[in-house]
Design brief:
single chain; about 475 residues; alpha/beta; Rossmann fold; 2 domains; six-stranded parallel beta sheet; globular; binds uridine-5'-diphosphate
Length: about 475
C-alpha cells in the first residue's frame, strides 16, 4: 500500500466552522489525492443534526474522522455563551493530544496539523511532536489582520475602541470604526476580550495561516499581511479561498436530503421569475428578538417584493442557538405578526430554522441575499454573485459588513435605530434598492466581477489553487 503523507485537521464545535474545514479537507484531496486526512471533531454538548450529516459524509471522500468525548457544562455554571466554546476547546486538549499521539504512531507519516483558529492551543501539541502546524482561518483576511494587530491596538489605544472618534487604520484594511470591530473587542475589561488577545497571540506559533479568502477579494489586505510575513513579523499567509460548501452535488445529495427533509422552498422558487426573490437568513444560529422579527416581517411585506425567509424562534440573545445549530421547529409561524402569513401568500415563503442555502443562492429565481454576514454566507454569496443587504448580529459580522458595504460596495447596510432595532420602513427601502432600484445595477455589476474572480481563483492555475497545491505538494514530499 502507498505510504501517504498524513495531515491531521482539528475542527471546533460550531457548524459553520465544521462545514468550512471539511470543505478544506475535500479541496486538499481534490488537489492532491496522495494525502491521507484525519479530521478530529471536538463536541460541545452534542452534535447537531447538521453537523452529523457533515461528518457522516466524510467517509465517502476517504476522510477519516475522530469524534472526541463531548464536553458539557452544568446548567448552573452560568458560563457566558462566548466563553463556552474556548472553555470546551481547552478541555478537549487532553483528548486531542491522545488522538494525535496515536495517529503519530500509526503507519502513514504524520506531517502537519491544521487547526481551526479557535483550536490554536493545539499548535503547541504539534510543536511537541515536531510536525508542521498551520491555522485554518475560516473568515476574512481583514479579521485575520485585526487579530494579528490586536496586541498593537491594545497597547496604542487606551479607551474603548467604540469611543474613538476617528476610524482605526490597520495596514491594507479599510479604515474601520471601533464599533465595527468584532464583538470580543467591544469591552476591554471582559474575559472575552482577554481571550481574544491570548488567542491572537497564539496564532504566531503557527508555521503558516491558511486564510479563506482570495487575492482578488482582499488584495491590499493580503499583500500587507504577506509583507509582514516576509519580514518574519507574521507567520506565512496563504490565501486559499473561497472554500465553500458545494451543496447537493458530488453525491452529497443523500446526506442532505435527510436533513432538509423537504425541498418545498426550492419547488416554490422554481415557479418564480428570474432574480425576483430575496433570500433572508441569519446563518446557522443567528436569532432575532420578537420585536425585531415583527419589524422584519412587516418590512418584507411593505417592500412588496418576493422573499424566502429562514425563521427561528425569537430570543433577545442573538447567539442563543449557536451551539445547537437550530432551534425547535414546532409551529414557528406563531411568532410572526397576526395575519402576516395570509397577507403574503404567494409573495413569500417561510422556512422553519434551516434551509438548503447553497441551493437557494444558486437558484435562478434568487435575486438578492439579506444576510447576517457570517463569512461562509458571504463567500457562498460571492460565488453566486448576488447583491447583498448586510445585517450583522454579533462576532466579526460587523467587520465583514463594513468591508462589504464601505470597502467593496457590493452591499446595502441596514441602519439600527437608537433602540438597536432595524425598522420596517428602513428594511423595505433596502430591499427595493437591492432588488429593483438603480443601485442594484451597480451592485450587481460589482458582484459579477467578484463572482468571476472567485471562480478564477479556484481554477487549476488560479491564485488560490496554486497556493494550496504547492502546500499540499510540500507535505506530500515530506511524507515521502
Ligand atoms: N446554512 C444553511 N442553511 C441555513 C442556515 C445556514 O445551509 O438555514 C449554512 C450556510 O450555507 C453556511 C453556514 O450554514 O455554510 C453558516 O455559516 P456563516 O459563517 O455564514 O454563519 P454562522 O452560522 O457562523 O453564523
Amino acid at each position: 500500500m502507498e505510504n501517504k503523507a498524513h495531515i491531521v485537521v482539528v475542527s471546533i464545535p460550531v457548524f459553520s466552522h465544521q462545514a468550512s474545514i471539511q470543505s478544506l479537507c475535500k479541496r486538499l484531496l481534490q488537489l492532491n489525492p496522495h494525502l491521507h486526512i484525519t479530521l478530529i471533531v471536538p463536541i460541545l454538548n452534542s452534535l447537531s443534526n447538521a453537523s452529523k450529516s457533515l461528518i457522516d459524509s466524510l467517509s465517502s471522500y476517504n476522510i477519516h474522522s475522530i469524534l472526541l468525548p463531548p464536553i458539557s457544562f452544568p446548567q448552573a455554571s452560568n458560563i457566558h455563551p462566548s466563553l463556552q466554546l474556548p472553555r470546551a476547546m481547552s478541555q478537549s486538549i487532553p483528548s486531542i493530544r491522545d488522538a494525535l499521539i496515536s495517529l503519530y504512531n500509526s503507519n502513514n507519516k504524520l506531517v502537519a496539523l491544521i487547526a481551526d483558529y479557535l483550536a490554536y492551543e493545539t499548535l503547541e501539541l504539534a510543536k511537541s511532536l515536531n510536525i508542521l502546524s498551520y491555522i485554518y482561518f475560516p473568515t476574512s483576511a481583514m479579521v485575520l489582520s485585526l487579530c494579528l494587530h490586536s496586541s498593537w491596538l491594545h497597547q496604542t489605544v487606551s479607551c474603548e475602541y467604540r469611543e474613538l472618534q476617528e476610524p482605526i487604520k490597520i495596514p491594507g484594511c479599510i479604515p474601520i470604526h471601533g464599533r465595527d470591530l468584532p464583538t470580543a473587542l467591544q469591552d476591554r475589561s471582559s474575559e472575552v476580550y482577554e481571550h481574544f488577545l491570548r488567542r491572537s497571540k497564539g496564532l504566531y506559533l503557527a508555521n503558516g495561516i491558511l486564510v479563506n479568502s482570495f487575492k482578488e477579494l482582499e488584495e491590499e489586505t493580503i499583500t500587507a499581511l504577506q509583507e509582514q510575513s516576509k519580514k518574519n513579523k507574521f507567520p506565512s499567509i496563504y490565501p486559499i479561498g473561497p472554500i465553500v460548501q458545494a451543496g447537493w452535488v458530488n453525491n452529497d445529495n443523500n446526506n442532505h436530503a435527510n436533513h432538509y427533509n423537504d425541498s418545498d422552498c426550492l419547488r416554490w422558487l422554481d415557479k418564480q421569475e428570474p432574480k425576483s426573490v430575496l433570500y433572508v437568513s441569519f446563518g446557522s444560529g443567528g436569532t432575532l428578538s420578537q420585536n425585531q422579527m415583527n419589524e422584519l416581517a412587516l418590512g418584507l411585506e411593505l417592500s412588496g417584493q418576493k422573499f424566502l425567509w429562514v425563521v427561528r424562534e425569537p430570543n433577545d440573545l442573538p447567539s442563543v442557538n449557536y451551539f445547537n445549530g437550530s432551534s425547535k421547529h414546532d409551529n414557528i409561524l406563531r411568532f410572526l405578526p397576526n395575519g402576516f402569513v395570509d397577507r403574503v401568500k404567494g409573495a413569500g415563503w417561510v422556512v422553519p430554522c434551516w434551509a438548503p442555502q447553497v441551493e437557494i443562492l444558486r437558484h435562478k429565481a434568487t435575486g438578492g441575499f439579506l444576510t447576517h454576514c457570517g463569512w461562509n454566507s458571504t463567500l457562498e454569496n460571492v460565488v453566486h454573485g448576488l447583491p447583498m443587504i448586510v445585517w450583522p448580529l454579533f462576532s466579526e459580522q460587523r467587520t465583514n459588513a463594513a468591508m462589504l458595504s464601505d470597502g467593496l460596495k457590493v452591499a446595502e447596510r441596514v441602519k439600527f435605530n437608537e433602540n438597536g432595532i432595524v425598522e420596517r420602513e428602513e428594511i423595505a427601502i433596502a430591499i427595493k434598492r437591492v432588488l429593483i432600484g438603480d443601485e442594484q445595477t451597480k451592485i450587481r455589476a460589482a458582484m459579477e466581477v467578484l463572482k468571476n474572480a472567485s471562480a478564477d481563483a479556484m481554477k487549476e492555475d488560479g491564485s488560490s489553487a496554486m497556493v494550496l497545491s504547492q502546500l499540499a505538494m510540500e507535505w506530500r514530499n515530506i511524507g515521502g
